[in-house]
Amino acid sequence: MSESRDDPTLFWVDPERRGIFDLDRFHISKSLSKAIRKQQFSVTLNQSFSQVVEHCAAREETWINTTLFALYGELHDMGYAHSVEVWDENLLVGGVFGLAIGGGFFGESMFSTKTNASKIALAYLTKHLSNCGFSLFDTQFITPHLASLGACEISRREYKARLSKAVISNATISSQKFPTAYSVLQRSAHTS
After folding, report:
1. CATH assignment of the domain containing 115
2. What is the Cα–Cα distance from 42 to 61, expressed in whole angstroms?
3. How many structural domains is the chain composed of?
4. Alpha-carbon span 165 to 65, nearest angstrom
5. pLDDT tens per residue across span 8-54
């Protein structure tokens, strides 16, 4: 991370309590289920990575500086950084991006310019990660928004134990087809 857009320094974050999603416990509320069912938006994987990162950094205060933006682009080109995009016709209205290493996905940031767009991105992403055999979805910190979707906090010790198992897994984000709205909602029916 960086302290701000204009700060050239980078630092690592290792919180005492770590935010994660248990992939099979992602919570789809009735209103989110209705939004997914309407299929007002289309959802894609890795179709506009740079644009998602740009939107995530387009805040008054951001931790994504130009160095990080360039590094994320390089990691995307190498196959480690990925994005989920939510589209309203040809307009990008939401998304999330992060890094995949083995069976671990490390969510970096998300954005939304339309109601439910970032939640829809996360619903599709968690379903896709589960389908591809991932075991860890690291959100770094927990926010009320993430908690409402089922994210929880675990201790640093538990996180490191899960991390050590996840990174040696040979899960890949491209091993399965990207989910449909129907399959995202089917998972919800079994776990809600």
Report:
1. 3.40.630.70
2. 29
3. 1
4. 31
5. 777 677 889 999 999 988 999 999 999 999 999 999 999 999 999 99
